[in-house]
Each structure stands twice: as structure tokens, then as C-alpha cells.
Specification:
Layout lengths: L2 H11 L5 H10 L3 H14 L11 H21 L6 H14 L30 E4 L5 E4 L5 E3 L2 E3 L3 E4 L10 E6 L5 E4 L5 E4 L3 E6 L8 E13 L11 E5 L2 E5 L3 E6 L5 E8 L2 E5 L2 E5 L3 E6 L4 E6 L2 H5 L5 E8 H12 L2 E4 L8 E7 L4 H10 L6 E4 L2 E4 L1
Parallel strand pairs: 5-7, 10-11, 20-23
Antiparallel strand pairs: 1-2, 1-6, 3-4, 4-5, 6-9, 7-8, 8-10, 9-10, 10-13, 11-12, 12-15, 13-14, 14-17, 15-16, 17-18, 19-21, 22-23
């Protein structure tokens, strides 16, 4: 660590770092060794209480808020300037609370080190609605155990037992409402995380020798697929709007919301083949395939996969996200509607890593403090942004 970086870190702790110094610190943090060192310094410098069992959330958030305010003028001087502050904020919360995992280099990302968890819905809605083959509906929510032959739930996840003697397909549906999130374990051992406002159709049991097919009717799902070699070579297939994703065994994310003009397929690990009519596209890790509904066009790009899948770990990870896209995400999670009075604001970009456990007011204050919006009003389930 050179003298300049030492000085900047001291200023960061003292809430005196400038926007330019934060940029230099962010660049320095792109080394994994530097990141580890910085985390240890954070552990020593704040937010651990005397018992060393909890962190002082208020102290961390107050520090970050003050940094945001001090950086606000720099934001106004350069309209779309990235705020290094938000990256540092994320690291601070990782180090102190163990809530987030943030990577700085794509090649350093290790999904196996991330332990998925189910976030309690802040709006108090049911975790999910299970629809059985006969049309019966079961409300699944925390604290309510549910069990019938081959199926059980603790209100946070739904688990199916493997029935190798199944002779016919019996489909179930899992619907996750706005403001909720749920985990599903299929009969073959495949794990699925469903995001807010999503619906999945799947069989109670798969038939031996046939493809293991599920249907993402709408919404967003993360799949951790049980390998084909454990199922006599049977492929796993995800069907979505006429497209088929074929899998041998891998981890990937599919985002396909009804109100959005594009769908996204992002590969984390392994290989997948996306088929659409007479076209086939092979994806490798960090590849994302974007399908434009109106144009019927496909586009492949490389992405930071953590930004695409952080939702399942209870994190909003916004990197160069336009405000109009961010409020769509927030609307689904908090079950609210937004009225953007100045539509030009919708094109403004925001960089931030925030917890899905936060109240909507805290999220809005972070966006407001960045200088992107001037004010907001909350009227029951309507949020007006000026």
C-alpha cells in the first residue's frame, strides 16, 4: 500500500475523501488482495459493537450518507458520473455485516461461495401460491408448514421428493407475487429461485428417459440444474415464450417480465444452448443473450453475472442502470407504482448496491442523495418522483 492510498483510506474513514480520491481507491480495490486488506481495515475501524456479535448499522449508514452528500456536487458537475462511493459502500456492508458479496473482476467470481437465502417479503404478502394438478391452491408463507405425499414446505421453500416410478406427467404451478421471493427444489434435485411477480410450471415428477422440461411463464428465475449424468443423460429444458434453453447441468438466470420489451438469459456456470425456431445459440459463462420481443432479434454480450443474479441473495446490484429500469425492479419488490413526472430523469444512470431488506424510503433517499432526482412523494402505493 503506497502513501497516497494510505492517505485516501484515512480520509475515507474520516469522511473527507473527494470524488477523485474515491475513484483512485476504487481502482486500487480491483485487486483481490487489496480488497481483502481493505475489508480487514473496515472491520477494525467501524461498526462492530462491544460484544463483537452485531454491527452498528446506524453508524455505517450515517457515514455513507455523509459521503454521498459530500460527493453530490461532483455529480452535478458531470451529469452521468459514476459514484465510486456506492462500490465502497457495498464493501463496507460486506465487511461489517456479512450481507453482500461484491466482485471486482469477472474472472474472480465464484458462485459456489455464495449461499443463497430467502429474503422475507417487506410488504407482508404470501411467499408463494402453489397450484396443484387438480387446480387446488395452497398459500405458502413463513411459519406455515405444508405437506402432502411427496411434497413439503416450511413456508420459505418447496421441496419435491424423487418419484422414480412416475408413469405420467402431473403439472404444478408456483406463483410468486409482487413483494416476495421463493425457493423450489424439483424432484430431480434441481434448485430454482423465483423472483417477485414470477410463475413457473413444472412436473411433480419427471419421467425417466424423457427430457426434464419446466416452463417459465413469466418473471425471473435462477436455476441450479442437477447434472444429466445423474439422470441417465436426460436433458433439462426451460421453455419461455417459444424459446427453449437446453441444459446438461449448470447455473443460469432467465428474466422474462411481461411488461418489459426484452428477455435476458445469463449463464453463470457450465454451458447452455438456447433454441428459437430454426436458430441455435451456444452460451458460455458470463454470456448474456438478449431477445427483443418487438424486433424478434437476439443479441449476445458479456456481463458481470453477479449484477444479474444478486436478487436471489437479497441484494439490488445496479451498475449503470437507468432510473426507468430501476423503478421497475423496485415496483415489483415493494408492490408499488411509480409516477415519473420528468421522463428525462428516466434516462439518468445510477450505480448502487443496496439491500432488499431496506425500506423503500431508504432506497429512494439513496437515489435522491446521488443527485439524480430532486424529490419524491409517497401516497400509499403510489410514488411520485420529481
Amino acid at each position: 500500500m503506497n502513501a497516497e492510498i494510505e492517505s485516501i483510506i484515512v480520509k475515507f474513514f474520516c469522511k473527507e475523501a473527494t470524488a477523485q480520491e474515491l475513484d483512485k481507491l476504487e481502482l486500487w480495490l480491483r485487486s483481490s488482495d487489496n480488497t481483502k486488506l481493505f475489508r480487514e481495515l473496515l472491520r477494525l475501524n467501524f461498526a462492530i459493537d462491544n460484544s463483537l456479535k452485531h454491527f452498528n448499522d446506524d453508524k455505517v449508514h450515517q457515514l455513507l450518507r455523509e459521503h454521498i452528500k459530500s460527493d453530490q456536487n461532483a455529480k452535478k458537475r458531470k451529469k452521468r458520473r459514476k459514484h465510486s462511493l456506492y462500490t465502497l459502500a457495498a464493501i463496507a456492508i460486506i465487511a461489517v455485516a456479512g450481507v453482500f458479496y461484491l466482485k471486482f473482476e469477472k474472472n474472480n467470481f465464484d458462485e459456489k461461495n455464495v449461499t443463497p437465502n430467502i429474503v422475507e417479503t417487506p410488504t407482508g404478502t404470501p411467499g408463494a401460491i402453489l397450484t396443484l394438478e387438480d387446480g387446488a391452491e395452497v398459500i405458502l408463507k413463513k411459519g406455515d408448514a405444508y405437506q402432502i405425499k411427496g411434497i413439503k414446505s416450511d413456508g420459505k421453500q418447496l421441496i419435491y421428493n424423487d418419484n422414480q416410478d412416475a408413469k405420467k406427467i402431473a403439472y404444478n404451478y408456483l406463483t410468486v407475487p409482487r413483494g416476495a421471493q421463493f425457493e423450489l427444489k424439483l424432484s430431480d434435485g434441481t434448485k430454482v429461485w423465483l423472483n417477485s411477480d414470477s410463475k413457473l410450471k413444472y412436473p411433480e415428477s419427471f419421467i425417466e428417459g424423457k427430457s426434464r422440461s419446466v416452463y417459465l411463464l413469466y418473471g425471473e428465475a435462477y436455476f441450479e440444474v442437477s447434472p444429466s449424468d445423474l439422470h441417465h443423460g436426460s436433458l433439462f429444458e426451460v421453455h419461455n415464450e417459444g424459446r427453449v434453453i437446453q441444459v446438461l447441468g449448470t447455473q443460469f438466470n432467465v428474466k422474462s417480465y411481461k411488461e418489459e420489451t426484452k428477455t435476458y438469459t445469463t449463464l453463470v456456470e457450465g454451458n447452455i444452448l438456447l433454441k428459437s425456431r430454426d436458430k441455435k445459440y451456444a452460451l458460455k459463462p458470463n454470456d448474456q443473450m438478449i431477445y427483443s420481443r418487438g424486433k424478434g432479434e437476439f443479441k449476445k454480450q458479456q456481463v458481470n453475472v453477479y449484477n444479474e443474479i444478486s436478487w436471489k441473495d437479497g441484494v439490488f446490484s445496479f451498475e449503470d442502470k437507468k432510473l426507468k429500469d430501476i423503478i421497475q425492479v423496485l415496483a415489483r419488490w415493494y408492490d408499488v407504482k411509480f409516477d415519473l413526472k420528468n421522463h428525462q430523469l428516466g434516462e439518468e444512470e445510477f450505480v448502487g448496491v443496496l439491500s432488499k431488506d431496506q425500506e423503500i424510503e431508504e432506497i429512494l433517499e439513496s437515489i435522491k442523495s446521488s443527485g439524480i432526482i430532486n424529490s419524491y412523494q409517497i401516497k400509499q402505493k403510489l410514488i411520485i418522483i420529481n
